[in-house]
């Protein structure tokens, strides 16, 4: 075991709650929404699946379905898909739909899981290569830099930069090539069994974590260190 690939959202980082997301945008825009309507509107946005990295949509409207299927293959598709979901919910100003999308791309909208620093630094100390392989429509590198984790990541492979989205094994292959490792010597860590499980087609080991709020998953990444340690020991036999 000489490399670990990580998913981003729901694995290393968790996006803020839908209510915090909405409140931040309303405050920034100086938009008025009665206090008693804020929680209900946030809940409606959550049900619609409008917050990237949050809950999946309960239903994808027909007019959004086409772009939703390829949302992670380009920046334009990603924005169109999520603002299309957001527009299913009435807001005091139509411009707020794009403002919400813009907010989710800021480092302030994301928090690392409590054990992310410990695990990433532990891998670095052990000489393990680290890659981030994400289905996403925007550059997440500033999020890692702002939270002090960029120094532990050797390569980023982002779907929108390659026009390919997980579970397509080509994304994982790009990451392994960048790290100079055989996929059979790599571990993929993610929260989506279908998307992240695609790494298994290359021979990568795969480990899943629960997509939970950060406060509810304080040590979900720590088993990665044990898995890597056992993998290296097995390789010596």
UniProtKB/TrEMBL annotation:
InterPro entries: HAD-like_sf (IPR036412), HAD-SF_hydro_IA (IPR006439), HAD_sf (IPR023214). Pfam families: Hydrolase. GO terms for molecular function: hydrolase activity. Keywords: Hydrolase. This is Hydrolase. It comes from Streptomyces griseoruber. The lineage of its organism: Bacteria, Bacillati, Actinomycetota, Actinomycetes, Kitasatosporales.
């Amino acid at each position: 075991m000489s490399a670990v690939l990580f998913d981003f959202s729901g694995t290393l980082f968790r996006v803020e709650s839908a209510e915090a997301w909405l409140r931040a945008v309303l405050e920034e825009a100086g938009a008025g929404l009665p206090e008693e309507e804020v929680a209900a509107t946030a809940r409606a946005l959550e049900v619609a699946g409008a917050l990237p990295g949050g809950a999946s949509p309960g239903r994808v409207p027909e007019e959004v379905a086409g772009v939703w299927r390829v949302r992670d293959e380009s920046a334009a598709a990603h924005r169109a898909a999520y603002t299309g979901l957001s527009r299913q919910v009435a807001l005091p100003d139509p411009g707020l739909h794009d403002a919400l999308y813009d907010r989710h791309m800021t480092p302030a909208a994301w928090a690392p899981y409590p054990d992310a620093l410990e695990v990433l630094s532990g891998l670095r100390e052990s000489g393990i290569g680290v890659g981030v392989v994400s289905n996403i429509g925007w550059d997440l590198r500033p999020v890692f830099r702002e939270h002090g984790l960029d120094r532990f990541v050797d390569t980023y492979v982002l779907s929108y930069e390659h026009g390919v989205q997980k579970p397509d094994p080509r994304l994982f292959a790009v990451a392994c090539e960048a790290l100079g490792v055989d996929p059979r010597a790599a571990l993929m860590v993610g929260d989506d069994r279908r998307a992240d499980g695609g790494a298994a087609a290359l021979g990568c080991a795969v480990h899943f974590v629960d997509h939970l709020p950060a406060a509810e998953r304080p040590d979900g990444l720590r088993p990665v260190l044990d898995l890597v340690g056992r993998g290296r020991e097995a390789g010596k036999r």
